[in-house]
């Protein structure tokens, strides 16, 4: 029996939380926190999250400081107890490391101080009942620094933030690796900032050899968007690929982001000085109570500006493959609907559960036949029950908004098969048909790699967390057993769509090394037929996981048109 809400508490975006950030000058700058608050005010205004920025320039968690620093570096432990008492947080983000190595070559004593300091901070935050979220140190980009970088072999007193060690990024890599290992061992959420920011630097520099990542230490605005985007993904399970117009460099002419920035400036300064710190550079600010009133007074203007700049949906229409494509947000998630030139009777539609636009020949052929194509980005939820609930909310909204048929045909490619199958098991009366292409059916096979397939270790780690298996499984064998129970529940639930007469088209290659047919498609085929369901299977001799679809999509189109004819209404 599949339950609809078993993962909801774990994955749902919270309605209210008090969220506190501790960090150095990157956090004090706070552009990524501004972006987070802006995203929620714009696209999820019913979620009232309170964002408190307690970043302090030059601060460490280790208590380290270099000789040439203009003042002894502040240490978060000098203020942590008071900060927690004043803010009473639900969640606490901790991001240190950039300053803790004091821009020197790697040193074991400094590294030990960093580890001890971070452990102490985590324990102190947990002692007040708050959730800890660790962030790895961002990268140090030596190509972007304005001054001299020193090589190995210098006197240790010569290295500083003004003359950093040329390979300091390698030092931070060791710090970040430990943060991830420690966080995983302690069951903490860890947001890896290094990989996405390093990828940003790489891509920007490929396009422009002169690209500068801020000053090499502090990211510029595009880096702050990547930090916010990564937090939205890893903590809130909101995957974004597009950059909102208001988050573009300098925000363009967005009055909305200007007002959010004004609100953040008032709050950041007031909270920083109210809690107190040992950085001698103080900010002029009214008392906290007055600042809170000023920030609250800005909300009506922010809401008006948000509405004028597209509201929660922020819909944008553009051309896609000769058709009108509308990109928009629903529930904070990126969505797409592509309209045919003329809708077919009943306004039928195809629903891509994953990988919109990939191997899209069948989608395009059906658009030519008058079908709509839609997508809601629920990536990295691995078809869990919570994802199905989000899918149903999207279907109900979309069919009303665009007057589409109540029963779509779901296309589930690869891991998209998990989404399509679980949705059909939970909502069989809302599905016209299923086209599944090299579908994942058993998470032990992919991403687990517990059978003949290659597996994907990073995705397996995330999948176990999404299904709340990671915390309850003491050993890999136990995790595998619990994952098998999830697959058994999924397969048992297929009685519902089989009984409801939902037909299935299954296309797979018989030489798929990523999602082996025998461990996935063949299991689905046997199970669905045993439940009395109809399965049409096309097995491609010698076919691997890619390419999906068929060279000639006529069988797919014919299946969709004929199978759905009596079920789309």
From TrEMBL:
A GO molecular-function descriptor: phosphatidylcholine lysophospholipase activity
Residues in AB hydrolase-1 domain copies: 406-439
Record-annotated SGNH hydrolase-type esterase domain positions: 21-225
Superkingdom assignment: Bacteria
Stored InterPro entries: AB_hydrolase_1, AB_hydrolase_fold, Ester_Hydrolysis_Enzymes, SGNH_hydro, SGNH_hydro_sf
Pfam families: Abhydrolase_1, Lipase_GDSL_2
Stated name of the protein: SGNH hydrolase-type esterase domain-containing protein
Source taxonomy: Bacteria, Bacillati, Bacillota, Bacilli, Bacillales
């Amino acid at each position: 029996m599949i339950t609809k809400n078993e993962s909801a508490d774990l994955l749902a975006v919270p309605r209210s939380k008090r969220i506190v950030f501790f960090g150095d000058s990157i956090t004090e700058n706070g552009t990524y926190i501004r972006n987070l608050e802006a995203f929620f005010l714009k696209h999820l205004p019913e979620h009232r999250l309170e964002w408190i920025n307690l970043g302090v320039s030059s601060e460490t968690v280790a208590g380290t400081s270099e000789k040439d620093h203009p003042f002894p570096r502040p240490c978060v432990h000098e203020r942590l107890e008071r900060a927690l008492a004043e803010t009473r947080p639900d969640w606490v983000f901790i991001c240190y490391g950039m300053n803790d190595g004091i821009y020197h070559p790697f040193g074991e004593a400094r590294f030990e101080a960093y580890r001890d300091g971070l452990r102490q901070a985590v324990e102190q935050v947990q002692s007040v009942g708050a959730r800890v979220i660790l962030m790895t140190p961002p990268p140090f980009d030596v190509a972007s620094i304005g001054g001299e970088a020193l090589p190995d072999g210098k006197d240790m007193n010569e290295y500083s933030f003004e003359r950093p060690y040329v390979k300091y990024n390698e030092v931070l890599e060791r710090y970040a690796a430990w943060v991830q290992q420690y966080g995983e061992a302690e069951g903490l959420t860890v947001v890896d900032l290094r990989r996405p920011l390093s990828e940003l630097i790489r891509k920007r520099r490929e396009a422009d050899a002169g690209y500068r990542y801020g000053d090499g230490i502090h990211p510029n605005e595009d880096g702050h968007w990547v930090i916010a985007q990564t937090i939205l993904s890893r903590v809130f399970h909101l995957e974004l690929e597009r950059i909102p117009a208001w988050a573009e460099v300098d925000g363009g002419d967005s009055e909305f982001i200007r007002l959010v920035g004004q609100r953040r400036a008032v709050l950041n300064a007031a909270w920083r000085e109210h809690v107190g710190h040992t950085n001698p550079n103080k900010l002029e600010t009214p008392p906290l109570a007055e600042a809170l009133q000023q920030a609250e007074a800005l909300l009506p203007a922010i809401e008006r500006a948000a509405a004028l700049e597209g509201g929660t949906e922020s819909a944008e229409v553009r051309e896609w493959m000769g058709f009108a494509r509308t990109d928009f947000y629903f529930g904070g998630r990126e969505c797409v609907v592509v309209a045919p030139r003329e809708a077919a009777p009943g306004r039928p539609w195809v629903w891509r559960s994953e990988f919109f636009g990939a191997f899209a020949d069948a989608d395009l052929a059906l658009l030519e036949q008058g079908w709509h194509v839609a997508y809601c980005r629920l990536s990295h939820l691995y078809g869990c029950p919570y994802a199905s609930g989000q899918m149903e909310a999207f279907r109900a909204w979309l069919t009303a908004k665009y007057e589409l048929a109540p029963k779509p045909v779901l296309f589930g490619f690869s891991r998209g098969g998990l989404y399509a199958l679980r949705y059909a098991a939970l909502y069989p009366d809302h599905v016209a048909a299923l086209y599944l292409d090299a579908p994942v059916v058993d998470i032990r096979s992919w991403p687990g790699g517990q059978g003949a397939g290659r597996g994907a270790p990073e995705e397996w780690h995330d999948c176990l967390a999404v299904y709340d298996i990671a915390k309850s499984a003491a050993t890999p064998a136990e995790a595998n057993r619990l994952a098998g129970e999830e697959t058994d529940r999924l397969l048992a639930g297929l009685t519902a769509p089989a009984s409801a007469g939902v037909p299935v088209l299954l296309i797979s290659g018989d030489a798929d090394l990523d999602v082996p047919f025998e461990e996935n498609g063949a299991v689905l085929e046997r199970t669905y037929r045993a439940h009395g369901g109809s399965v049409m299977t096309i097995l491609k001799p010698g076919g691997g996981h890619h390419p999906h679809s068929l060279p000639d999509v006529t069988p797919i189109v014919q299946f969709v048109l004929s199978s759905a004819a009596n079920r789309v209404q």
